[in-house]
Design brief:
Shape: globular
Number of helices: 6
Largest sheet: 6 strands, mixed
Strand order of the largest sheet: 4-3-7-8-9-10
Helix content: 25-40%
Strand content: 25-35%
Mean pLDDT: 92
Distance between the termini: 9 Å
Length: 193
Amino acid sequence: MEALKQKILDEGRVLPGNVLKVDSFLNQQIDVKLMEAIGKEFALRFADDSIDKVLSIESSGIAPALMVAKELGVPMVFARKRKSLTISENVYSVDLFSYTTQKHTQVIVDQRFLTAGERILIIDDFLANGQAAEGLLKIISRAQAIPVGLGVLIEKSFQSGRQLLEKANVRTESLVRISSLVDGHVTFLDDGK
């Protein structure tokens, strides 16, 4: 997706440790027009998959997941990183390791929002080592729902996430694939799929 590539080139910042900071348009400030375009693109790619719900993780996956759900005309659910007093005791939970924060976090989804047989599309901002996607797949499995696929905005192809998902036989659609983040420079794979 050329608009996303250009945004990364114009506003993304490469930090030490192969971290790409995209807070000016995705992770803190949201470029709404770009998110609308992303929603349309993923809705097109998964149009024939009879999606019942879109699932993401708070917080950076919420904006694109919401736009995809809007385009598909289905509800969007997000896994919470913090349990509050208003959350029921009946939850699906999984422990995830975040590449960016280098911390373990428990994420939860209320059992009322994922049910057996529902067809679930996962949308997330990044695919690096695949831990978030793997965790959401576990939650989908516990709900006895059906994982239709994963739509990711930015894939770090030089990390192992895609291989993990291929082993799990999960269709993965990436809008942008990055082959390296060396010397502060972003290098893209050409295919973007």
